[in-house]
Every structure is written in structure tokens, then in C-alpha cells.
Write a structure and sequence with these properties.
Chain lengths: ~170, ~170
Amino acid sequence: MSLRYSILGLLARTPSTGYELTQMFDRSLRTSWHASHSQIYPELAKLEHAGLVEVIGRGPRRSKTYGLTNPGREELRRWLVEAEPDRAQRNESSVRLFLTNLLDPTDRRTAYERDLSHVEKELEELKGVRRQLQDEGGAEVFAPQVELGIRVDTVIRDWLRERIEDAAP
Amino acid sequence: MSLRYSILGLLARTPSTGYELTQMFDRSLRTSWHASHSQIYPELAKLEHAGLVEVIGRGPRRSKTYGLTNPGREELRRWLVEAEPDRAQRNESSVRLFLTNLLDPTDRRTAYERDLSHVEKELEELKGVRRQLQDEGGAEVFAPQVELGIRVDTVIRDWLRERIEDAAP
DNA sequence: AGCCGACATGTCAATACCGACAGTTCATCT
DNA sequence: AGATGAACTGTCGGTATTGACATGTCGGCT
């Protein structure tokens, strides 16, 4: 169900085309939920059929801009407030972090270092986003979420550094 | 592919039955990857067919204990070290955290408080696990992973508390 | 005019995943 | 002896997800 509500959530913020939604999934939502355009377009069609979204404009290249309908807005609210959250996770990186210390010390170090450089890169990107939000000065709704991402990544980065140091002679 | 390698990883630690694997997914791996028995049994059959695991013992109630074969061990190592990690996530809680501040202040507070009490509970559980590992005194392989879980949950807990305080008058 | 790359939308077959249904086996309690 | 419940393994239909294929549009560069 998360795909459906992620789309409703993004549209609640700004009406968008399928293409723009795909980009937002890649950028903002990539640490929460991944989806590609081959899922997004069919889901938009279903949502339109269900009356939760509607086409509110057409642009160049046949693009259609979707917006939330009132039932859509209510459905999103209902899900966020009333529905029982599903806490199940599916996170390959986390599986790797978990299993990596089954490896012998050399391989383990290689794996941790690869993860570390990835986290460091991601952390830089997030800090870039934060800086950008500060410069804009506007009341960006998702600023706290960016902050959370930074804190979580920092914790993971430090943990990885400890793992690597522990392995050192 | 993560299901497959999660199973190989758990079996690398201890030979287990499908039932035991199901429990381990619920306990140790629940913050990384979720899987239910209806996925695990068929996957074990596939892995056996592929020669990556084998039945190394039979117990009461028709139970079969699976262990890794050498090709299985190599395949796990290959995946952990050489395969390109897939960083995509699927985490409904995270989607909720992201979308919750689209709600009006009252609903938002309700949602954050529900999440907070869940995280606090989970944190207590993890600390219980850590205490248990310390008491055992043995060199438990996954102790650092438990520590990481505690740190990440702590960061999320504090962030939620800030959100709730910000909302207060 | 021709070409390229980003924009934009879609479909389809294969695989992954979920929840419900279903059955057997053993230990313990009454 | 019968009931109960936890241990244990499986299957199945429906939905979700992926990756590849397919098609066309528009702006800018040469």
C-alpha cells in the first residue's frame, strides 16, 4: 500500500506529472521507498480510476499533471492517522551490514570501507540539500526529515569507522 | 535477491530448520529484512536444488536441518564482497515519518506520539538483547549490529521528541 | 536539415511477496 | 483416552515489483 500513499503524499505537496513523481521518488523518497516509472504510471491510472487523483492540466509532450481530489486527501489522512503502521522493512544495505561480519577480516574490511565511502557521499549530498534549504530561507516542509536523514547517516558512518578501526592491528 | 542471501547468511552462522529461520527473521533480522515462512520454505527448496544448501539432519516432526554447502559459502562471500549493493529501501515507517508533517498539527502530534511509543518500546527490547549478550560474556558475532540498532533508534526517538515539542504551544 | 539528449508515457513477462488455507506431529494436561 | 496447543512444513491465488522493450516529443547544437 505504501506506493499508493507515497504518491498521494507527494501530490498533496505539489501537483505533478508521472515523470516528476518518478524523479521525486529517486531524490526525496529514495531512503524510504523506491519505485520506478513502470510502477508509477499504472498506479496513477488506478488512483484516477478510484477518484483519488485527477488530471488537472496537460503540458508539452503529452504530459498530464495530476492533483489530489478531496477523497484523495481524506484517504491519505486516514491512512497516516488511523491505519495500523506496517513496521516491516526491506533494506538490502542493512542485510549486508548485518552479514558482513561473517566474512574473514580482510574481506570484511573491504566491505565496510565500500559502505563507508558510500555513506560519506550520501551524507555530503544531504548536507548540500540542507544548506540549500537554509539559503532559500523558506519554510520548507521537509527540512526536519532531511535533518533526520543526516543524523541517521552520521550514526552509521561513525559505526562503520569503529568497525574498521577495530579490525586494524 | 536479499531473501536468498539472508538465508545463506543465517545458515552460515548455525545450521537451522525452516522454522528456526522464520524465527530468526522475526527476531534478529526484523530491522533489515522481513520474510514469512511461506517464502522461506520454497526458497530453501530452491537453494537445495541449486546445491547451495543441503539437509544435514532430520529431527522430530519431519523437521529438516539445513546447512551451507561449500558452493553456498562461496556464493555468500561473493555476494557480500563483489556484488554491487542495491541501496533501495522499502520501509513503510519511513514513508510515514516523511509524510506525517503534511497533516494538521493535531493529527501530526497523534501520529508522532504513536511512532514515539513504538520506537521507545523497540529501543527497550534492543537494550534487553544487549544486556543478555553482555551477561553471556561470549563473543557474539552480532553484538555490533545490536549496538547500531540502538544508536539509530535513539536518534529517531530524539528526533520524534523534538517534533512533538515543536508542535507544543 | 540531422542528431542528440532529456523529457514523457506506457506495456509486458518474469519474479517476489503476502495472507490464508491446510495438514501432521509431539508433549502436556485432565 | 481425548483435548489442546505449540512445533513444523507446506501450497496457492492474488498483488507488488522489476527490468526490458517500445514509442514519441521537444530544444539546442552542428
